[in-house]
Amino acid sequence: MRKLRIMSVILLAVSLIIFGVFFVRERFLIDRTGPEFKIEDDKITISVKDDETALMNGVTASDARDGDVTDSVIVENISPFMDNGSRIITYAAMDSDGHVSHAKRTLTYSDYTSPKFHFSQPLRLPRNTGMLPEGITAEDCFDGDVTRNILLLYEGDFNRVNFGELDVTLKVSNSAGDASYLPVTIEIYNPESDRADSQLSLTDYVIYLDQDAAFEPKTYLRPGTIDISRVSIESDVNTHIPGSYSVKYSVTDSEGGTVTDSVRLYVVVTEKGAN
Predict the structure, then answer these.
(1) Which secondary structure element, helix H or strand E, spans residue 119, and what is its range?
(2) I need a labelling partner for 205 at 20 to 30 A (CA). Which of 25, 52, 176, 266 fits?
(3) Is the distance from CB of 149 to CB of 174 less than 8 angstroms?
(4) In the predicted model, what is the mean pLDDT of the chain?
(5) Cβ contacts of residue 64 below 8 Å, gap of 6+?
(6) What local confidence, expressed as pLDDT, does residue 130 receive?
(7) Neighbours of 82 (CB within 10 A)
Protein backbone atom coordinates (compact mmCIF):
# COMPACT_ATOMS: atom_id res chain seq x y z
CA MET A 1 0.00 0.00 0.00
CA ARG A 2 2.87 2.32 0.87
CA LYS A 3 4.59 1.51 -2.42
CA LEU A 4 1.39 2.34 -4.25
CA ARG A 5 1.23 5.75 -2.57
CA ILE A 6 4.87 6.42 -3.42
CA MET A 7 4.30 5.47 -7.06
CA SER A 8 1.23 7.72 -7.18
CA VAL A 9 3.24 10.65 -5.80
CA ILE A 10 6.02 9.99 -8.33
CA LEU A 11 3.53 9.83 -11.23
CA LEU A 12 1.87 13.02 -10.05
CA ALA A 13 5.24 14.77 -9.81
CA VAL A 14 6.22 13.58 -13.31
CA SER A 15 2.87 14.75 -14.67
CA LEU A 16 3.33 18.15 -13.07
CA ILE A 17 6.85 18.42 -14.51
CA ILE A 18 5.63 17.45 -17.99
CA PHE A 19 2.76 19.88 -17.73
CA GLY A 20 5.13 22.60 -16.59
CA VAL A 21 7.48 21.95 -19.48
CA PHE A 22 4.65 22.11 -22.00
CA PHE A 23 3.20 25.21 -20.34
CA VAL A 24 6.52 27.04 -20.47
CA ARG A 25 7.07 25.90 -24.06
CA GLU A 26 3.60 26.98 -25.14
CA ARG A 27 3.71 30.21 -23.15
CA PHE A 28 7.23 31.41 -23.77
CA LEU A 29 9.04 29.39 -26.43
CA ILE A 30 6.54 28.94 -29.30
CA ASP A 31 6.03 32.00 -31.53
CA ARG A 32 2.33 32.47 -32.13
CA THR A 33 2.46 35.85 -33.85
CA GLY A 34 3.36 36.80 -37.38
CA PRO A 35 6.03 39.27 -38.48
CA GLU A 36 5.59 42.98 -37.82
CA PHE A 37 5.79 45.38 -40.76
CA LYS A 38 7.50 48.73 -40.75
CA ILE A 39 6.53 50.98 -43.66
CA GLU A 40 8.26 54.36 -43.89
CA ASP A 41 5.38 56.00 -45.78
CA ASP A 42 1.82 54.77 -46.27
CA LYS A 43 1.85 56.25 -49.81
CA ILE A 44 4.27 55.59 -52.66
CA THR A 45 4.58 57.08 -56.14
CA ILE A 46 6.47 55.26 -58.90
CA SER A 47 6.76 55.25 -62.68
CA VAL A 48 4.84 52.76 -64.81
CA LYS A 49 8.25 51.73 -66.14
CA ASP A 50 9.51 50.65 -62.70
CA ASP A 51 9.58 46.95 -61.85
CA GLU A 52 8.25 45.34 -58.66
CA THR A 53 11.39 46.11 -56.67
CA ALA A 54 10.32 49.77 -56.59
CA LEU A 55 7.23 48.73 -54.64
CA MET A 56 9.49 47.41 -51.85
CA ASN A 57 11.10 50.77 -51.12
CA GLY A 58 10.73 51.64 -47.45
CA VAL A 59 9.19 48.27 -46.50
CA THR A 60 10.78 46.02 -43.86
CA ALA A 61 9.50 43.23 -41.60
CA SER A 62 10.78 41.68 -38.39
CA ASP A 63 9.76 38.78 -36.20
CA ALA A 64 10.12 38.37 -32.44
CA ARG A 65 11.82 35.00 -32.89
CA ASP A 66 13.44 35.19 -36.34
CA GLY A 67 14.56 38.78 -36.32
CA ASP A 68 14.70 40.51 -39.73
CA VAL A 69 12.42 38.72 -42.23
CA THR A 70 12.35 41.44 -44.89
CA ASP A 71 13.56 38.90 -47.44
CA SER A 72 10.24 37.08 -47.07
CA VAL A 73 8.15 40.13 -48.03
CA ILE A 74 6.23 39.81 -51.28
CA VAL A 75 3.63 41.90 -53.11
CA GLU A 76 0.57 39.73 -52.66
CA ASN A 77 -1.87 41.90 -54.60
CA ILE A 78 -2.35 45.26 -56.28
CA SER A 79 -5.96 46.40 -56.44
CA PRO A 80 -7.64 47.85 -59.53
CA PHE A 81 -7.69 51.63 -59.81
CA MET A 82 -9.95 53.42 -57.37
CA ASP A 83 -11.98 56.54 -58.15
CA ASN A 84 -9.14 58.83 -57.08
CA GLY A 85 -6.70 57.20 -59.51
CA SER A 86 -4.73 55.31 -56.86
CA ARG A 87 -4.35 51.60 -56.12
CA ILE A 88 -3.82 49.60 -52.92
CA ILE A 89 -0.75 47.36 -52.54
CA THR A 90 -1.07 44.37 -50.19
CA TYR A 91 2.21 43.01 -48.82
CA ALA A 92 2.72 39.63 -47.10
CA ALA A 93 5.59 38.44 -44.85
CA MET A 94 6.15 35.01 -43.27
CA ASP A 95 8.25 33.78 -40.34
CA SER A 96 9.90 30.37 -39.88
CA ASP A 97 6.80 29.03 -38.07
CA GLY A 98 4.64 29.73 -41.12
CA HIS A 99 2.82 32.69 -39.64
CA VAL A 100 1.84 35.28 -42.28
CA SER A 101 1.22 38.97 -41.71
CA HIS A 102 -0.15 41.59 -44.11
CA ALA A 103 0.22 45.30 -44.61
CA LYS A 104 -1.19 47.80 -47.11
CA ARG A 105 -0.29 51.14 -48.60
CA THR A 106 -1.48 53.43 -51.38
CA LEU A 107 0.14 53.40 -54.82
CA THR A 108 0.06 56.19 -57.41
CA TYR A 109 1.92 56.60 -60.72
CA SER A 110 3.79 59.68 -61.86
CA ASP A 111 3.30 58.99 -65.58
CA TYR A 112 0.26 56.75 -66.00
CA THR A 113 -1.98 57.18 -69.03
CA SER A 114 -5.24 55.37 -69.78
CA PRO A 115 -5.38 53.02 -72.79
CA LYS A 116 -5.31 54.80 -76.15
CA PHE A 117 -6.91 54.07 -79.49
CA HIS A 118 -5.20 54.26 -82.86
CA PHE A 119 -6.94 54.37 -86.26
CA SER A 120 -4.95 53.76 -89.43
CA GLN A 121 -7.86 54.61 -91.73
CA PRO A 122 -11.41 56.01 -91.74
CA LEU A 123 -13.99 54.02 -89.78
CA ARG A 124 -16.04 52.18 -92.39
CA LEU A 125 -17.87 48.88 -92.16
CA PRO A 126 -19.90 46.83 -94.65
CA ARG A 127 -23.43 46.18 -93.49
CA ASN A 128 -24.21 42.94 -91.57
CA THR A 129 -20.61 42.18 -90.63
CA GLY A 130 -21.03 42.57 -86.86
CA MET A 131 -17.37 43.31 -86.24
CA LEU A 132 -14.98 46.18 -85.63
CA PRO A 133 -13.91 48.31 -88.58
CA GLU A 134 -10.45 47.55 -89.91
CA GLY A 135 -7.52 49.65 -88.75
CA ILE A 136 -8.56 50.03 -85.09
CA THR A 137 -5.94 49.13 -82.48
CA ALA A 138 -5.28 50.09 -78.87
CA GLU A 139 -2.24 50.22 -76.63
CA ASP A 140 -1.71 50.49 -72.89
CA CYS A 141 1.27 51.60 -70.81
CA PHE A 142 0.97 48.44 -68.65
CA ASP A 143 -0.23 45.74 -71.02
CA GLY A 144 1.08 46.90 -74.39
CA ASP A 145 -1.22 45.86 -77.23
CA VAL A 146 -4.78 45.63 -75.88
CA THR A 147 -6.56 45.52 -79.24
CA ARG A 148 -8.16 42.22 -78.21
CA ASN A 149 -9.97 44.09 -75.39
CA ILE A 150 -11.76 46.56 -77.67
CA LEU A 151 -15.54 46.47 -77.53
CA LEU A 152 -18.07 48.26 -79.73
CA LEU A 153 -20.96 49.55 -77.62
CA TYR A 154 -24.25 50.12 -79.39
CA GLU A 155 -27.86 49.97 -78.24
CA GLY A 156 -30.05 47.83 -80.46
CA ASP A 157 -29.36 45.27 -83.15
CA PHE A 158 -26.18 46.30 -84.91
CA ASN A 159 -26.92 44.03 -87.87
CA ARG A 160 -30.22 45.80 -88.59
CA VAL A 161 -28.57 49.17 -89.15
CA ASN A 162 -29.36 50.88 -92.45
CA PHE A 163 -26.66 52.27 -94.69
CA GLY A 164 -25.22 55.58 -93.64
CA GLU A 165 -23.58 56.94 -90.51
CA LEU A 166 -23.89 55.18 -87.17
CA ASP A 167 -22.89 56.67 -83.80
CA VAL A 168 -21.29 54.12 -81.45
CA THR A 169 -18.80 54.07 -78.58
CA LEU A 170 -15.52 52.20 -78.49
CA LYS A 171 -14.31 50.82 -75.17
CA VAL A 172 -10.95 49.33 -74.25
CA SER A 173 -9.75 48.24 -70.79
CA ASN A 174 -6.49 47.11 -69.20
CA SER A 175 -5.51 44.65 -66.47
CA ALA A 176 -5.56 47.41 -63.83
CA GLY A 177 -9.29 47.91 -64.25
CA ASP A 178 -9.04 51.20 -66.14
CA ALA A 179 -11.11 51.73 -69.30
CA SER A 180 -11.15 54.32 -72.08
CA TYR A 181 -14.25 55.25 -74.04
CA LEU A 182 -14.37 57.05 -77.38
CA PRO A 183 -17.58 58.10 -79.17
CA VAL A 184 -17.14 57.62 -82.93
CA THR A 185 -19.19 57.61 -86.11
CA ILE A 186 -18.92 54.58 -88.38
CA GLU A 187 -19.93 54.66 -92.02
CA ILE A 188 -22.05 51.60 -92.84
CA TYR A 189 -21.85 50.94 -96.59
CA ASN A 190 -23.17 48.51 -99.18
CA PRO A 191 -20.20 46.45 -100.44
CA GLU A 192 -22.03 45.79 -103.73
CA SER A 193 -22.16 49.47 -104.63
CA ASP A 194 -19.26 50.83 -102.65
CA ARG A 195 -17.73 54.07 -103.82
CA ALA A 196 -14.15 54.29 -105.02
CA ASP A 197 -11.27 55.01 -102.70
CA SER A 198 -11.75 58.10 -100.56
CA GLN A 199 -10.73 61.44 -102.03
CA LEU A 200 -9.80 62.57 -98.53
CA SER A 201 -6.86 61.25 -96.56
CA LEU A 202 -5.59 62.33 -93.14
CA THR A 203 -2.19 62.02 -91.52
CA ASP A 204 -3.98 60.77 -88.36
CA TYR A 205 -7.50 59.68 -87.58
CA VAL A 206 -7.36 59.92 -83.78
CA ILE A 207 -5.06 62.17 -81.74
CA TYR A 208 -4.50 62.93 -78.06
CA LEU A 209 -3.79 66.50 -76.99
CA ASP A 210 -2.90 68.10 -73.69
CA GLN A 211 -5.36 70.61 -72.32
CA ASP A 212 -4.79 74.10 -73.81
CA ALA A 213 -2.63 72.72 -76.64
CA ALA A 214 -2.73 74.46 -80.01
CA PHE A 215 -4.87 72.76 -82.66
CA GLU A 216 -5.24 73.48 -86.37
CA PRO A 217 -7.53 71.03 -88.25
CA LYS A 218 -6.07 71.77 -91.70
CA THR A 219 -2.67 70.42 -90.70
CA TYR A 220 -4.09 66.88 -90.56
CA LEU A 221 -5.15 66.81 -94.22
CA ARG A 222 -2.64 64.70 -96.13
CA PRO A 223 -0.92 66.92 -98.70
CA GLY A 224 -1.63 66.39 -102.38
CA THR A 225 -4.77 64.27 -101.98
CA ILE A 226 -7.27 66.96 -102.93
CA ASP A 227 -7.72 70.67 -103.59
CA ILE A 228 -7.96 72.14 -100.08
CA SER A 229 -10.30 74.88 -101.34
CA ARG A 230 -12.99 72.23 -101.94
CA VAL A 231 -12.78 70.91 -98.38
CA SER A 232 -15.08 72.21 -95.66
CA ILE A 233 -14.24 71.59 -92.01
CA GLU A 234 -16.68 71.22 -89.12
CA SER A 235 -15.01 71.12 -85.71
CA ASP A 236 -16.29 71.17 -82.14
CA VAL A 237 -12.81 70.86 -80.60
CA ASN A 238 -12.20 72.93 -77.48
CA THR A 239 -8.74 72.19 -76.14
CA HIS A 240 -9.45 74.18 -72.97
CA ILE A 241 -11.90 71.51 -71.77
CA PRO A 242 -10.84 67.83 -71.47
CA GLY A 243 -13.09 65.49 -73.42
CA SER A 244 -13.69 63.74 -76.75
CA TYR A 245 -14.28 65.74 -79.91
CA SER A 246 -14.44 65.23 -83.66
CA VAL A 247 -13.58 67.13 -86.81
CA LYS A 248 -15.48 66.36 -90.02
CA TYR A 249 -13.80 67.07 -93.34
CA SER A 250 -16.09 67.13 -96.38
CA VAL A 251 -15.37 67.60 -100.06
CA THR A 252 -17.97 68.85 -102.54
CA ASP A 253 -18.36 68.41 -106.27
CA SER A 254 -16.95 70.89 -108.77
CA GLU A 255 -20.06 73.05 -108.41
CA GLY A 256 -19.58 73.14 -104.66
CA GLY A 257 -23.03 71.79 -103.94
CA THR A 258 -23.07 68.03 -103.26
CA VAL A 259 -20.82 66.38 -100.70
CA THR A 260 -18.96 63.60 -102.47
CA ASP A 261 -16.76 62.41 -99.62
CA SER A 262 -16.18 62.96 -95.91
CA VAL A 263 -13.85 61.72 -93.20
CA ARG A 264 -13.45 62.36 -89.48
CA LEU A 265 -10.58 63.09 -87.14
CA TYR A 266 -11.20 62.23 -83.46
CA VAL A 267 -9.55 64.45 -80.88
CA VAL A 268 -9.14 63.48 -77.21
CA VAL A 269 -8.18 66.38 -74.95
CA THR A 270 -6.70 65.26 -71.65
CA GLU A 271 -5.76 67.16 -68.51
CA LYS A 272 -2.29 68.64 -68.60
CA GLY A 273 0.38 66.01 -67.99
CA ALA A 274 -1.98 63.08 -68.57
CA ASN A 275 -0.60 62.11 -72.00
Answers:
(1) strand 116-119
(2) 176
(3) yes
(4) 85
(5) 31, 33, 36
(6) 64
(7) 11
109-158: pLDDT as tens digits: 999 999 999 999 999 888 776 678 889 999 999 999 999 999 999 887 66
Q: Which one is the CATH code of 36-109: 3.90.380.10, 1.20.120.790, 2.60.40.10, 2.40.50.140? A: 2.60.40.10
36-109 and 116-270 share one fold: yes
- How many of the other CB atoms lie within 10 Å of CB of 241? 10
In angstroms, the CA 267 to CA 269 distance is 6
Residue 211 identity: Q
Q: Side by side, which strands form the sheet with 179-189?
A: 124-126, 179-189, 164-173, 151-153
Q: Which residues contact 70 (CB under 8 A, 6 or more apart)?
A: 59, 60, 61, 62, 93
Query: C-alpha angle 110/111/114, rounded to 5°?
Result: 125
The architecture that CATH gives domain 116-270 is Sandwich (2.60)
DSSP alpha helices (H): ranges in the chain?
Answer: 2-24
Residue 244 β-bridge partners: 268
